[in-house]
Write a structure and sequence with these properties.
142 residues; mainly alpha
């Protein structure tokens, strides 16, 4: 989807979605490592004639390497996107709106955490968020 056609919220939320995908892939790598350890354990306890286990281990390693490559690409994209978002957030005039946007879209904090840290009521945080998104929309159009 073209970044200009996205809403400000969807644009800013991209970083969170990429971060979630990275975490999911990291969990998959951990799972594959666990399988590789099991396969390694099985290989050391069985007679040497079992070629099937060798291919199984090779397949796991290949999948791990592929996933790790995807994770690296996603990490690079996340770093670039966070930089892009930070540049845009700095264009918002009010510092408290900048802080709210940074906490939500760069640090991925919940609304409740933001309210507590900023010493605001939750409703006020929502109002500020709406105002901040409006400013981001204007900045994106220019």
């Amino acid at each position: 989807m073209n970044n200009q056609k996205m809403s400000a919220h969807d644009y800013l939320s991209q970083a969170y979605r990429i971060d979630q995908r990275i975490n999911s892939k990291l969990e998959q790598v951990i799972s594959l490592r666990s399988l590789a350890e099991k396969a390694k354990s099985t290989l050391s306890k069985t007679p040497k004639a079992k070629d099937k286990n060798l291919h199984y281990m090779e397949d796991i390693v290949i999948k791990m390497v592929d996933l790790e490559s995807e994770i690296n690409r996603d990490l690079n994209r996340l770093i670039d996107l966070k930089h892009e978002i930070m540049t845009m957030v700095k264009c918002v005039e009010l510092v408290e709106l900048q802080t709210l946007l940074e906490m939500r879209y760069l640090s991925f904090k919940s609304w409740e955490q933001i309210a507590v840290e900023l010493h605001f009521e939750l409703r006020h945080v929502y109002r500020l968020h709406g105002k901040a998104l409006s400013e981001v929309e204007i900045i994106r159009r220019t």
